[in-house]
Structure formats: C-alpha cells, structure tokens
From TrEMBL, chain A:
<dbReference type="GO" id="GO:0045165">
    <property type="term" value="P:cell fate commitment"/>
</dbReference>
<feature type="region of interest" description="Disordered">
    <location>
        <begin position="150"/>
        <end position="218"/>
    </location>
</feature>
<dbReference type="GO" id="GO:0005615">
    <property type="term" value="C:extracellular space"/>
</dbReference>
<dbReference type="InterPro" id="IPR005817">
    <property type="entry name" value="Wnt"/>
</dbReference>
<protein>
    <recommendedName>
        <fullName>Protein Wnt</fullName>
    </recommendedName>
</protein>
<dbReference type="GO" id="GO:0000902">
    <property type="term" value="P:cell morphogenesis"/>
</dbReference>
<dbReference type="InterPro" id="IPR018161">
    <property type="entry name" value="Wnt_CS"/>
</dbReference>
<keyword id="KW-1015">Disulfide bond</keyword>
<dbReference type="GO" id="GO:0007517">
    <property type="term" value="P:muscle organ development"/>
</dbReference>
UniProtKB/TrEMBL annotation, chain B:
<keyword id="KW-0272">Extracellular matrix</keyword>
<dbReference type="Pfam" id="PF00110">
    <property type="entry name" value="wnt"/>
</dbReference>
<comment type="similarity">
    <text>Belongs to the Wnt family.</text>
</comment>
<dbReference type="InterPro" id="IPR005817">
    <property type="entry name" value="Wnt"/>
</dbReference>
<keyword id="KW-0732">Signal</keyword>
<feature type="region of interest" description="Disordered">
    <location>
        <begin position="265"/>
        <end position="300"/>
    </location>
</feature>
<dbReference type="GO" id="GO:0007517">
    <property type="term" value="P:muscle organ development"/>
</dbReference>
<keyword id="KW-1015">Disulfide bond</keyword>
<dbReference type="InterPro" id="IPR018161">
    <property type="entry name" value="Wnt_CS"/>
</dbReference>
Amino acid sequence: MTTSAIGGCDADHRVLFGAIRQWGNQEKRGRVGVAMGRASSQRVRAATAVVTATVLLCASTPVSAIQWLALSRVTALAVTPREQVTPQACESFHGSLVRQQVRFCKDNPDFMDSVKRGAIWAIDECQFQFRTRRWNCSTLNDETIKEYKKRMKPKNTPETVMVSNKTERAVPVTSPPEALQSVKPNSASARDASPLPRTSARRRRGKKRKKSKGKRKTGVVGLYPIVPQGVVLRAGTREAAFVHAISSAGVAHAITRRCSSGELDVCGCDRSVRGVTPHGFQWSGCSDNIAYGVSLSKRFVDARDRKLVQRNKARGKKVSSRALMNLHNNEAGRKLIEENMRVECKCHGVSGSCELKTCWKAMPTFREIGEILKEKFDGATEVRLKEVTGRAELEPNKQYFKKPTEMDLVYVSSSPEYCDYDLNSGSLGTHGRKCNKTSRGLDGCDLLCCNRGYVASQERVKERCSCKFHWCCYVKCRTCIRDVTVHTCN
Amino acid sequence: MGALQGGGGARPLPRLLLLCAACVGMARAGNWMYLGVVGVTPLLPQGDQEVQNVSTSSAVSICQHLPGLVQQQVAVCQSNPDTIKSVSAGARRGINECQYQFRNERWNCTTGVDLDVPFGYTLKRGSKETAFIYAVTSAGVVHAVTQACSSGNLTDCSCDMSKQGLSTPEGWKWGGCSDNLRFGIQFARQFVDAPEKERHKKFKRVRNLMNLHNNEAGREAISRLMKMQCRCHGVSGSCELKTCWRSIPTFSAVGDYLKDKYNGARQYKRKKRSRSSRRRDRSRGRRKRRSRRNRRFPVGKDELVHIHKSPNYCVKDPKKGILGTYGRYCNKTSRGADSCDLLCCGRGYNTQVVRYVERCHCKFVWCCYVKCKTCVTNVDVHTCK
C-alpha cells in the first residue's frame, strides 16, 4: 500500500516510445538488406502489443474517471505555496485534467495546492477506511506496475521474454538499451521470409496509435486509486462511488480550510453567519466558508462528468449512467460536509465563566467525513438509469428498496470479488496481504485470504520503549526488539 | 375387538409407509434429529380411543416404523414407548435453542431445506457447529425426558427419591420431587449415543468419537447446572419448614452455557506419526494401550471438541449446504455479530422502508368499548446484499 513519486506510468510511456522508435530504425536497415526477419516482425508485433498494453494500463478502464487525483503526486504543486502556479504548469497537467479543469487551474491558481491537498487527504482517508478490506484503495504506482509485469511474464524461451507481449511494456524502464542490444544479433541472424506488407501495416498502425496517444497524454498520469470497473465495462462500482465522494469532499474541505486560514485575498470566513442565536448569543469568530469550497469543488471535480452529460444531451444520445452516478456521488460527498457542520464555541470571561461566548460554524474533521462515507458505502444503493420525459434519472434497481437521498451513495454495477489479481477489473488480489488470525471480520484471515489459507511468520519489530524525560528538555528512549507473529495470505 | 384393532392399526400404516418411502433415500442412518423437526405426532396413530392407550404391540410397530433409527434405538424405543415423544420434544427444544443462540451469527442453525435430514451438510462436517448441534440436541433429550419424568408423564420413571428423607449438612431434610436426572442421562446415553457407538465399532473413526464426546458434553452441561430449589412453609413464609429439591436448569441456561463452550471449542488435530514410530510402537506392544487412550479426547468432559475448521458461511454454497448471508436482517447500529458489517461480510446492505400500521393510544370509553387511533410508523430495515 505504498505510493511513489509521480511518473510511473508516464515515464513508461516516454521511454517506451523511444524504444519503439529505435526499433523502427532497425527495421529500415533490415529492409535495405534482404528481407524482414521473423524476429524483427515479432518485435514490431511486440511493439504494438506494448503500446496497447500501456494504453490499457495508463489510459483506460480501471481508473478512467478520477484521473485528476493524480495531482496528489505532482511536485510542481507545493502544499505550502511559495509561488503561484503558472499557466504553463496548468497546461502540463493536460494528461490528467480535462479542458475545463485546466481552465479552472488557470483561473484559480491559488487553489490548485488545495486541490492537491484535497486529493492527498482523499486518498489517505480512503486507504485508512479500507485498510482491512480486500479492496484497500491501492493506488496505481510503480509497484503495482512492477507486479503487473511480473505476473504477465511468460515462462518460455528467453527471446520471447525479451520481445513479447505485455511484459515488454515495463522492461524499458529498467534498461532499454540492453534490451535492444540483446535483440539485435538475433534479428540479424534470423532472416526467414515473412509477410512484409502485413508487418509494415502493423507497424504503421502502431506508430499512428503511438502518435495520437502521445499527443494526448502529455501530462501527469497514473497514481490515482485503482477503482474497480465492475462486471460491465465502464460501469461504476460501490468502490468507485466512495472514491468519488471522498475526493470531492476532500477538495471542498481543503479549499474551505484554506479560505478560513485567511491567507487568500479571494475568500475568507463566512460572513453570512451573523446576528443573534435563539439562545441569546451572538455569532462571531470565523465560520468556515463551506459554500465557497463546495462551489469550487463542484466546478473542478464535476467537470469531466458534467461535460459528458451535456455533450450526450446535446447530441441526443443516451446519458451515461456512470456519469450521472459520479455526479450524484460527488454531490453526496460535498453535501455530507454541509450537513455535518457544527457549532464550535469558546468561552471568555473570568476563568472561563462564559460571560462572553464566541461561536462559529466549523466543518467536521475529515476523518469524520471518511467514517460517515464508509457507512454510506455499506448502505449504498444499486441504481439503474431511468428516462422520465426526456430527463435521465437514477432509480433503485429494485422498486421496494429505499430511494437514495442526496447524501447516499449510489452505484451501477456490482463489485468483483477482489480475491484474485485482475487489474483490468481493478482488483489487485489479496495475495501477500497481512491478516488478523483471530478476527471474524473482514480483516480476519478466513475472509481476507478468500479461503486460500495463510502462512505465519515471525517478524522483528523495533520499538522505542521505556522513555524518560530529562531536564531540560529532551526524552531518552531505549530501543526494544520484539518478535511478532505475522499472518500473510497465500 | 380384533376388527377394531385391525382398523386402528391399519390406518396409520400407509401414512407411515409413505413417510418412510420419502425418508429412506435421504435420511442417513442414525439421524434421529428429524424427530425434532417432523415430530412423532404424524407418525403416531391418533384419534381413536382404543389407540390412545398405546398397547405394547402397537408401540412395537411404531418404534419399528420410525425411519432412520438404528437397531439399538428401536430397542430402547420399544422398551420405553412413551419416551419417544419426549425425544422428539427434546430434539425440537435443542434445535430451537440452537436457532435462538445463533440468530445473530452468520451460521444461524438452519435445519436446511430437507426436513427429514436436518442439518444434513452441517452434520457431515466435523466443525464447531456440528459439535454444538450434537451437544444441544443431546442436552435437549435429557431435559425433555427428565421433565417428563418429574411431571409424571412417563411410566418408567418418577421423581428422584434417592435423597428423600436424608438430611442436609445444614439440618434440612430433603423432600419434594427432585428431577430424576440420572434416568434422563441414562436414557439419552442409550438412545442418542447408539448410532455413533455402532458406527464407531464399525469404522473406528475420530468423527464418531467427536460426536460421542459432544453428546456427553451436552449432558454434562445439564448436570453441572443442576440447582437446588427450596420453598418455605410456615406462618407467612417464616421458613419454619423448608422443602428443597434438586431441579434441572431452564433450557435457555443450558443454551447459554453451551454457546459459551462453543466459543471456546477446541480443535482436535491428530498427530501425524511417522511410519518408523508406528513400527516401534507395534514392536513394543504399545498398540493396545494407545487405542484405549485414543478413545477419549484429552479435554474436559464439558468442553466441545471439533476436528474440522468451520467453513466460510458468507457466500452461498449449495454443494456444502451453506445458505450464505444474503437477505439476512442486520443491525446497522450494532457492533456485534449481528452488525451489518460482520453479518454481510462487507458486501453491504439494502435498505427497505417497512410501514407498520398499529393501533395506539387506546382508550376505554364508557360503556363499553375501546377506542384506538391508528399509528403509522416507518422503519428502515436492512438486509444483506
């Protein structure tokens, strides 16, 4: 469950394309010679496969809609901003953001760091809430990709390892030049006749795809939580609903916090909370300006799905249920903050006699939001699309189930089991996960390991212990070493 | 008389035969627990005055026609024909208690679809749940038979008179009707243990040993929970005279006790022995001693023992007879076993709004009727996905 620096997928891309270009050069040379060798044709095929695989992993299914969460790993956005985000920087996020979001970035450069912070909070909270579940909100990072590579590696001859399908995608990351050199002699020696037009066509197609993809994916990609797709492709699952809600809530929360901190010129405390309360106290202090945060979050987070809905409506097409679902869940996350606003007070007067009390409206902590959302996740409603006189709506799958309120999560497709590794459906499997032997809940070894069994091993834990305070002023601790039995899923 | 008898005896027979035909295929030999689900009443001849006084000859035929009983059980039934009703009541008591104790758990002690083979699949396994079923049904039989003895429903037994007239260390004298636990236990030992003993003789399996042990644990639970009850006599309860007797516990207390034992049930793992050590044993002639030792589990008499791990009761698995927790009611606010989180195994829950229409704020109006209002309450009900 680690997250790593930005660029796992992106770096793959660039290096990869470099590699393909070089292979292309070789081929030219080959054609000047006699004929295309089988090896080189294989390579071209591999190259196309590589591109498709990369595209599959980076651009498409498991993760499509929440790509802006990748901002959480962008180093250009400092969490404590010293300088403003430049329009160029905004442009560079094009891979992860849609046009409207880039425009938002240019319009509100001050808030981009809050968006980033919101994304970080959202991912952290998601991982915290789901730490004991089979789906644990892992993000797509270098490790996952490495794992993917390891699993897809075929176990036959060495040359196929070098020049074959999806495994190749990640090989260039480690050592692209070597990979190429080792292929070279092979291609030179083996020169059987091979259908030349077909290969060249393949190559062209591959190049074309590369070009188009390369153009589109210039910015940050990857490193957002792997959200499962569900059985039906592109249909949203319960988990997707949660991630949408928590991330939109995260952005609203972070922006509001930042407004309340008073560092910005554009926004501040909520001035609308004024006057005298029914209890005779006067509102004062800095109330969190949640309305502002919510409106900005709506603009940024909803951009992609709103655009999709509008475009489909304009073209007279059927509105995608996934987009509607995302919009609903985004709204639910934000509404939850608004509904759970509370009054915080501070007493003044002689030794807190509360002669004078300052009260203001404050947001709940983000942990509370996460907890409430987790409950909503458990009670999420499965919905389907229903068209009522030209308006598309979501309604419960079964008539007799309760209609979801604005603050309930909805989803369209049931989730996979998450037991086995299948990145395409968004499941990383539970192999190697730590489990709790005595628990009967989801983190218990029986449920977490999907009845595959588990192994116990001893782990040495270093702890600081018997700490003592010394005058003045430091704490001295000893290091204790303890052996702990750890259970890991098979 | 002969004609009458013939009429009375002939009528139930086709019914019995029909039932037997249905059972023979499915009822595994020795699964007497179906008596708790089906009951004996449909099997026993009813109606006519003549048949009500069950004569020995008809009792013999009834006992022989009860499906699924082994030889010894038939013999026990024939020697005490009245007790068979108590056996049925006891099994039902056990099953009801089991379902009450497990109402909030993933495995909720369902008897299964097939009424003639209750717990069919669960009994095949040797898990904790199997252990509980055996213990609770055997305890149920003891309980029902003992109660029947005390209330005078059985001819073969009555109150426990062994202590009658003896004085207690405190100077009181035993009196009243003490529950005759000894008879109950002995009867249960003969009836309930019979199929397992027979099979153990044949196959020498640990499984049968486990069942025997758990049967005994159920009986042991009752005898450990026996309590003394007294009643005071004399002027306004002055306790000048006190009658005391030993009585069996309520069955829910037995259920609680056994559930506690279920939670701490021990898994018995047979040690794998290498071939060489086996040979060494044989050469030293230890074999006989070991087999005698093997007849018992190295745990207390009142502990439940199982040999297999419990399966995952979350997902439906018809092959293993697991119903899964889909559609079960769960408690959203609870943190225990009936919470939606634990019961639904993380699949989440559906919410339904159930409308209750009740009469409320009832008032008596002179004279003479009651006027009520109708109250409508909407309650959210959660069921597992």
